[in-house]
Amino acid sequence: MAKMTMDHTDLINASQAPSAKAVYFVGPFTSRITFYSQQVRALRLAHAMHELDLIKTGQQVAIVGAGAAGSTVAAALALLDKQVTLYDPAAQILQLQSASSRLLHPHIYEWPARGSLDDRAGLPVMDWSAGTGGVVCNALRGEFSKISAPLSNLMFRAGHKLVGIVPSGPAWQLTFETSDGPQTRIFQHVVLAMGFGDERPAGDVVPEDYWRPGAVGTSATEPVSGATYVVSGNGDGALTETLGLLIDGFEHVSFTRNFLGFFPGDELRIAAGATFTGAAFEQDIGASLRSNLLPILEMHGVLDRLRTMLRKDRIVTINSSGPLFAAGRASQLNQCMVLALLEAAGTEGITVQRTRGFVAGTSKTTDGTALEGISVGSTPYTGSFKHVVLRHGPDIKKRYVPAATLIVDYEAHLAPLLEAGPALAAPPVLDESTFELFEQLRIRKIADHASRPQQLLQADEAKRIVEILVDPAAHVLIERGSHGLTDVAVACERLPKRVTVDVHVLPSKFSEARDLVRLAKGSAGKIDLRAHPTVLNEWTELLPGISAAPDPTSVRAARDYDGAQIMAGVDACLMRALDSRVQSAIALGQTPPLSKLSTPLLAEIGKTWKAWQPDLDANPSVRFDFLRWLAQVDQQEVSPWDGDHGSVQRMANALIMIMAANCQQPLAPKSIERGNLGFAADAVALGTGCEVIGADPISVRREPDDWGVDALILSASGEVNVRNPAGRVLDGGTIGNTVRAARRVSPAIIQNNPFWRERWAGDLDKWKEAVAEEFAALRERQDDQLNGVAK
Q1: Which of 15, 84, 594, 706 sits at 20 to 30 Å (Cα–Cα) from 280?
Q2: For the purposes of burial, counting CB atoms within 10 Å of the CB of 261, is it exposed (0-12), middle (13-18) or buried (19 or more)?
Q3: Closest-CA residue to 601 (of 611, 609, 593)
Q4: pTM for the full model?
Q5: Class for domain 227-390, per CATH?
Q6: Tens digits of per-residue pLDDT, 448-466?
Q7: d(Cα 228, Cα 389) in Å, to the nearest integer?
Q8: Which CATH superfamily is domain 8-197+404-437 in?
């Protein structure tokens, strides 16, 4: 599912009705509602209100509802120095989930999205980790207390139930029911975060709240075997209830983790992707899910494992008004788990009946409760159930009765926005600016004075860490951090502060590993590369002395790994380094160890460089090949610049010599097998600053075929002497072919020796004459060979 981002103005527009300015709603009509997503919406709302300066000095803000959204937006606005009062009918915040054994997980409902198995929410304030509702709520109450204690501008009013809200001039009058009678207050801004309402009843059946512990469907053995249950609904609540009824000793957190652990590889995600990708909202995907999932359930013995967990003292019926497995109605993981459980039940001989239809009402019978409007196939179902579990969704408008007119106007305002931009209902993204704003405020206002400097330092350092790892949900490489790897690669040595890249994956698992090492070395200390101890040995082979990285700690949202720009980033870094040295040579009139260059020649070099630079930058593949040969001669395996700035001067000198030769003999950077320059019709030249081939100096190459080019321009040697081959050879091609062919002749050579240094330091015409003579001699040798073959 796509993640949702929007600017501050659009966010405020989507949070209030035009008829009720300064009254804000937090996501009551979004299709994916989770504890975490509501907190993100709350933080983004507070940030937008602050950035747009909606709350003026001295104005009062009421937050109605102390659940996930309300308590979070209250804390956020208070940290922004707003005068905030938080109201709730309960005695404490987060009352609803406070005793629940249900799983509260910040991201798992987005499985198999990247980061969906991260246990930590990763919020700058009111942060938490996955656990039961009770455990999470107790932890968050502690967090809220830490925030509210030093902030006199944040008050919590327990036991206050909103019963009315009406305009009062430019402000709003709120009436609360309390144990001391009605109370009325005036506020300039109101955030209605009253939750989503109670489950919709049917007839005489009033559902228990999903989060509240109840006696129905507990882990206790049924008093009478064969107790009948019906679960009605196809959302996450209904599917979770189904799991709880069918699994012996069901514990939401452990079962979910165990189920995911049944699949050692990526098969479950792939099967889910094959089912859900491209499916329309509420499309029946039951047959497709079974077809894609069943083979891997059988392959990994999942059905056999699930069979041992099944209860046999209950008879369960599942009812839904539409398809039980409908795209978008419940999380993909819940749908996968329920389908797997139903398949396991079938193999164990446990019948789970499926009915369909809208529950129009209920009636009491001697055997329990009958549901009106449901059927098996086309036959109305007339049986009764001992226990009825309804999960038909919350009655939002009933919850907002005290603000009935406002909620109706807001829904009417939001509907066309959702239709025009469906992503508005998608899970929201906590952007980096919002995270940093509230993280800094939390540290500066809540942390104790003694630890505050250290926490600020740690926060700053954490911003400059990029982690590369395999996501356990998607089984693909991801990045985490405030900075994207692409941005780091593009900036490289120009980064304002050092960035640390921590790798938690073997270098053999991604193709850019060597380029990443080159990037770190080329950054001149601005990029520090570390490897986790589990992969450190392999990385040490690429980068001796690499430091060990700690376990992953970033709470930033997971991003797709993007290594496509690493190689380009290294090449761009090298181009900047070369440019610096070329410009220095032009300014100073010399470059070590080439010594002095004539001013007219340097002017010509400057013109050539100005023309070549944009062409090279516009053609990354040509630039890469040109630069790798400029750095290394031994290219049996593609070997680009290793990032060592100690070799850049030699490469820059080679570049200067290449451009100097271009004054007389036109050359052009090209991607060619044995060189990096083209000239004449199809001739190949190699310009390089390389000193050695292996452990030997490049002068050991003395045969034309050792080089395989027509011209050499060498800045790091003055002693290369390539012999001209004697005589002729026969073509060793097709049998019977006795046509004679010319051998490759010795190339034209411009190198760093006294002869050439004297020429480039002197008169420009003399330089051109020397270059012309060198290439004329090459053509003469080639002509002699060709003429000899033709005789």
Answers
A1: 15
A2: exposed
A3: 609
A4: 0.85
A5: alpha beta
A6: 999 999 999 999 999 999 9
A7: 11
A8: FAD/NAD(P)-binding domain (3.50.50.60)
